Please model this.
Amino acid sequence: MYMKQSLTYTLKVTLTTLLLCTPITFAIMMGYLRLLPLISSNYSFNVNLDIKDAAVFIVLTFCTLLFNMRKIGGTAPVTYNKPNIITNAMMTSIAIFLVYLWFREKLMYLSIDEFLITYGPTFLITFICMRVYALRNEESQAKLI
Model:
């Protein structure tokens, strides 16, 4: 039962992130590019969201969420702590994603603002989805929280 709830939660987060990632990131990139002339007259900025990289991050998030939820149905279900699960899964997937970008030599060429504009929306969408969706039926399991 717990595995089904964990899998359902993970699929909701993953699919919502997948559907919202590209349009929201594109809108933020376009908004930032329109603001740049107002901020600085001499600017150089490169935006390129590789869909494969976004897909790798979403798959990493899926795997780390399932890995971090293994304690929910285990021998000590009292350890259920949704904020802790979310934080651990998010930080682990971001760290592994940064290592992935570093090995692919894509991280070296991005400035901080380019990195945040390109990948920040995906991180934020994933985190918001993790917080918004209920991990399980809270009414029937209230004693475990």
